[in-house]
Amino acid sequence: MELTVYLSGEIHSNWREEIMQKAETANLPITFLAPITDHEASDNVGIDILGDEEKGFWKDHKAAKINNMRIRAAIEKADIVVVKFGEKYRQWNAAFDAGFAAALGKSIIVIHPEEFTHALKEVDAQALAVAQTEDQAIDILNMWR
Prior knowledge:
Blueprint: E1 3-9, H1 15-25, E2 30-33, H2 39-50, H3 56-77, E3 80-84, H4 92-103, E4 107-111, H5 121-126, E5 129-131, H6 134-141
Parallel strand pairs: 1-2, 1-3, 3-4, 4-5
Helix pairs in contact: 1-6, 2-3
């Protein structure tokens, strides 16, 4: 069974590459989808395509709308959504992605450190699995070997 997995969440580490590499090594039948992970490219996509803005609000507004087209399409296409909450920043976008995936009835795997459990209890309640490491997430995905 071929799976499509969307990798949502923090963009300040190489966790996506680790999961993709481990899936490839395990010969898992998975196609991975992801958001734009180049922070500057993501932040500037709106002004790069539609033109400059004087105010940061409108710059961010343009970028968010264009990025959301890609994110929505990927989550809708995915069989499983993996959402990682990293330790460095609050990932409001990851929480939104998890909510959107839940609203669509997608299977969700959440990854976060134990100390985030209380803060993410509502997100965790929507997930079918809550992992603390990428290895645990790949072990769950390994069911499709």
